[in-house]
From TrEMBL:
Name of the protein in question: L-gulonolactone oxidase
Domain of life: Bacteria
Organism: Cellulomonas chitinilytica
Coiled-coil portions: none
Domain FAD-binding PCMH-type: 1-124
GO molecular function: D-arabinono-1,4-lactone oxidase activity; FAD binding; L-gulono-1,4-lactone dehydrogenase activity
Keyword Oxidoreductase: yes
InterPro entries to which the protein is assigned, alphabetical: ALO_C, FAD-bd_PCMH, FAD-bd_PCMH-like_sf, FAD-bd_PCMH_sub2, FAD_lactone_oxidase-like, Oxid_FAD_bind_N, Vanillyl_alc_oxidase_C-sub2
Length: 387
């Protein structure tokens, strides 16, 4: 099966509660899915900020957006069709093979190939976006009000400064329109966020001592903007500067301490970091392998420009978040293994059991899966290549 070829719309089924169940081929890219839903007057309840992934990859790795009352993309999945190791096509949901469904919707592809996904979507909606530079201390002091008082809140902290860019996105009536000037949009999203940002990263690579000055200038140069648009247009941002990323989910109550500890490490280490730290939020859920399982969650994503070394920085952050039982994003850089992951996921043993039952011969095993879930019982572990 070629996943990229499985991308058709199969079914649109309105539900009594006002939501709609939409079944699509698992290979559909999020950008195409958003366009398809909009054509039917529908939208995803929440999204991340990149739309290049397939829906299969996005849900299987725990992709998420931000919002204190909202979960990741996998929480919007109500059904999944998979092709198992025996070649059987199996429909799963909370009432049909529910344990298999747990790993079909968020299980790193460990129990089969996703062929189709049924999503619970909502009527299309518009968002008002407010982006403003704040002092980091003010953000942290008012964090609960900012997170709980907005439908979607996130912020970007610039290392070597105490400044942050805040983003507050809230639902508005459909008849409210305040479009961003196209010239301003191009200047902000392409020239500044991508073109100039690429240049400053190159300068920081060539002249590392200039990084702190560059970040300070960038933080002070940020200006506020406010606009309205369909939800997907607000959620998705162009990302053209290449980077490496590690993201950890931590208990929301521990966020301030984690950021302060990262800040202290940065200043003591001498590392120069031109990329901002991204912070997002999610409601707790009950998915076995969700990074937000059982706790209100804050996400701390650290980045490094692709031409700069990242291991020392990321390793330090991993040690810091380990103190608060951090959980790594399944699809981003981290160094945890099954033994350590089992300590931070209450249903980890259940996930291992279902994987062993669904794929006893290890057809879907690979070195990464064997590291993070453990080898399939009775099979020899496949060594993971060193990057």
């Amino acid at each position: 099966m070629v996943l990229d070829a499985v991308h058709a719309l199969e079914r649109v089924a309105p539900q009594p509660d006002g939501s709609t169940h939409v079944t699509v081929g698992a290979g559909i890219r999020l950008g195409a899915l958003n366009t398809l839903l909009a054509q039917h007057g529908l939208a995803m309840r929440n999204l991340g900020d990149i739309d290049k992934q397939s829906i299969a990859g996005a849900i299987s790795t725990g992709t998420h957006g931000t919002g204190a009352r909202l979960g990741g993309l996998a929480t919007q999945v109500v059904g999944a069709r998979i092709v198992t190791a025996t070649g059987d096509v199996v429909e799963t949901s909370s009432t049909r093979r529910p344990e298999l469904f747990e790993l079909a919707r968020l299980g790193l592809g460990s129990v089969g190939v996703l062929a189709a996904v049924t999503l619970e979507v909502v009527p299309a909606f518009r968002l008002e976006a407010r982006e403003e530079p704040w002092a980091l201390d003010d953000v942290l002091d008012g964090l609960d009000e900012l997170v709980d008082g907005n439908d979607h809140f996130e912020f970007y902290w610039f290392p070597h400064t105490r400044r942050a860019l805040t983003k507050r996105n809230n639902r508005i009536p459909d008849d409210v329109h305040q479009r961003l000037n196209p010239v301003r949009s191009f200047v902000d999203d392409e020239l500044l966020s991508n073109g100039l940002f690429s240049l400053t990263n190159r300068v920081a690579t060539l002249v590392p001592p200039a990084t702190a000055t560059i970040n300070g200038l960038a933080a002070r140069a940020l200006s506020a903007r406010r606009y309205t648009a369909p939800s997907a247009e607000v959620f998705i941002s162009p990302r053209r500067v290449k980077f490496r990323e590690m993201e950890y989910a931590v208990p929301r109550a521990e966020l301030t301490g984690v950021l302060e500890e990262i800040d202290r490490w940065i200043e003591a280490s001498g590392e120069r970091l031109p990329f901002p730290v991204e912070v997002r939020f999610a409601a707790q859920d009950d998915l076995w392998l969700s990074t937000a399982h059982g706790r209100e969650t804050a996400y701390v994503a650290v980045h490094q420009y692709v031409r700069l070394p990242f291991t020392r920085y990321f390793s330090a952050v991993e040690r810091i978040v380990a103190q608060v039982e951090g959980r790594p994003h399944w699809g981003k850089i981290h160094w945890l293994d099954a033994e350590r992951l089992g300590l931070v996921y209450p249903r980890f043993a259940d996930a291992q059991r279902v994987r062993n039952q669904a794929d006893p011969e290890g057809m879907f095993s690979n070195p990464y899966l064997d590291r993070v879930l453990g080898p399939v019982e009775g099979l020899e572990r496949v060594p993971e290549a060193v990057a």
